Amino acid sequence: KMAAGEAAGRYRSTMSKSKDPSGLLISVIRTLSTSDDVEDRETEKGRLEEAYEKCDRDLDELIVQHYTELTTAIRTYQSITERITNSRNKIKQVKENLLSCKMLLHCKRDELRKLWIEGIEHKHVLNLLDEIENIKQVPQKLEQCMASKHYLNATDMLVSAVDSLEGPLLQVEGLSDLRLELHSKKMNMHLVLIDELHRHLYIKSTNRVGQRSKEKGRISSLVKDASPVPLMDVTNLSTPRKFLETSQFGTPGSSSMRETSLLEIKEDMELDPEENSTVFMGVLIKGLAKLKKIPETVKAIQDRLEQELKQIVKRSTTQVADNGYQRGENLSQENQPR
């Protein structure tokens, strides 16, 4: 009985000091193993049962006392559990939606790239159609420019049209006739420019000299002087070489300045292109350069030089004879055969 009492005391001290159920179980097993009497064991069993009953009563009392808090805690726990479960399901759904969106975005990106490429193609086609529409009007505009002698604008228009027809528009079968026509005009364009250049080099310039000689002849006829009358004074005439040597083209021999000035030559569509003969010849040279016919131009000038100079002499002789006819009669009457 004393051993049982000691065991019960150890049990109570263990219950009071420790809340670990494993320690309590070990203490009970040790008490039962050290006890040799069946009655002590039964007593210990009774005490354990009484202790458990007391714990149940205490638990029931605590449940009754804290029923509201316990119910609220259980409901809160259930709500939290349900929210966690719902959140997990939603996260799973969100992941699935994100994967689906990722696939759709890949598809949309491919579609957008395809649409972007189609947009560029359509824009290019529209530009080609606009270019074709403009090129169809080139023959009419070219004829107008040639009629008004705006050769630089005509040359730019013709070269650009031929480059387009033989470049981006080469595969357009409907433009084959127009391509042949404009190509043929481009091949023969330099002949017209060379003829105009020769006309201004040899005919227009000598016409100015003839006009000046007429004026001087009229003045000299009013002054009766036995001194010889100069036939021509060409020191102040504007010739192509003097044009290149003027101040606006820099010093003579400065090829870079000459080239720059040639590039700066522009054609005014509202003015008479032949009003300034020197600028007009610069326009012709620039047009021939755009046609890449400068070697042919130089060769043509060399080939026709002798013929043109003979024509100048012939025209000048005729002009001198006509202008001096009346003056010659007056001189013969004054016994001045010269």
From TrEMBL:
Coiled-coil segments on the chain, per record: 45-97
Domain Exocyst complex component Sec8 N-terminal residues, every copy: 46-144
An example Gene Ontology CC term for this record: synapse
Region (Disordered): 1-21, 316-338
Swiss-Prot/TrEMBL keywords: Coiled coil, Exocytosis, Protein transport, Transport
Pfam families: Sec8_C, Sec8_N
Ranges where the Exocyst complex component Sec8 middle helical bundle domain occurs: 273-323
Task performed by this protein: Component of the exocyst complex involved in the docking of exocytic vesicles with fusion sites on the plasma membrane.
Family label: Belongs to the SEC8 family.
Protein name, as recorded: Exocyst complex component Sec8
Natural source organism: Podargus strigoides (Tawny frogmouth)
Lineage: Eukaryota, Metazoa, Chordata, Craniata, Vertebrata
Gene name, Swiss-Prot/TrEMBL: Exoc4
